[in-house]
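Student: Please help interpret what follows.
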Amino acid sequence: MTAQETQHPRTVRAVFASHQGTEGAGFPITRPFPTRTLPMVDPFLLLDEMGPYEFGPGQGVGAPDHPHRGFETVTYMLEGRFEHRDSAGNHGILGPGDVQWMTAGAGVVHSETPEKDFNAAGGRLHGLQLWVNLPADQKMIEPRYQDTPGSAIPVVDLPDGAGTVKVIAGEAEGEGAVIDTRTPIQYLHFTLQPGKRHTQAVPAGHNGFVYTLSGRGAAAGTDVPPQHLGILTDGDRLELAAGDEPWSVLLITGRPLDEPVARWGPFVMNTEAQVQQALDDFRAGRLGRIQAPERHRVLVVAKEDELDALVAGLHAAGHDVQGTSDPASAERRIRAGVEAVVLADHPHRRRLSMLATSTGSHVLDAPDADDAAGADLDARLRALWG
């Protein structure tokens, strides 16, 4: 019997559509899991496609200060620039193609927001975040980061001009990843050319799925449309075939932990008692807090025809400024935490002022764009912090 005859091809057991929603301070996400029909794909807890979305000057949003314990987050940027900070003093910026593999372990308070200069200019944001469970004996390990620039991540040309594969974790075509994982994982990003096929070796015994970012293609003969996820059966190889346009698709597999999972929001443990302990530790401040950045966060709320000038003026004066004309977005951002709220003429000015005051934010009125963009408002803001 030949080696080819002993191979066991994988197939697609089921295809799931993603759900649309928002996360953090209100950025749009597409989520294939967790859902009621697909709670997890052990050892994977969550997959979010962040955006893509276009935003105007100051209008980008992310996920301000929030805790994590008991698992890992993997952030893969496709477009735009994200900035992260945490309660251990870590700080970095992720650009297109970069990957951050954060092991939360015993716990950190973390923030992920559009990088301040990128946010001030406006642009397009697109990325992915994967949550990977940690085994019980590693849930309380010391947190660590692996911030890996896109230039260091292997991209391999596939045979016969089929396309390329980016090796984020595991290996493909004899090329191993530079990122170290605590759970054996394969995380590959394929771009297949129209009409091309590729058969990828996959570790037997891993749970796995494919997720289409764009284009059309089939995994083991089953179509997986954009923003759909295909759950794979077991096996040691998978055939991928692009349709009549380039197919951008993720192939992600991991060795299952087969352990009890107790989860509440950003805490993933093995028992409810451990989750309650994580909550108690967070509320008591034992996970720490993120120190204020060099530039204080300022939110401008104004009508659309005034917003760009207000944001540009405050950014030029050196402030870390966000802006919105949408009252729902303003409310989410105020609740997420900003140091000051500048309220220009706006229909919801009174309600937002009361909310900002109740959360401890400073409130400043800006009668018109010229006032807000000029030295007077800048001086008033700086006076708040000495």
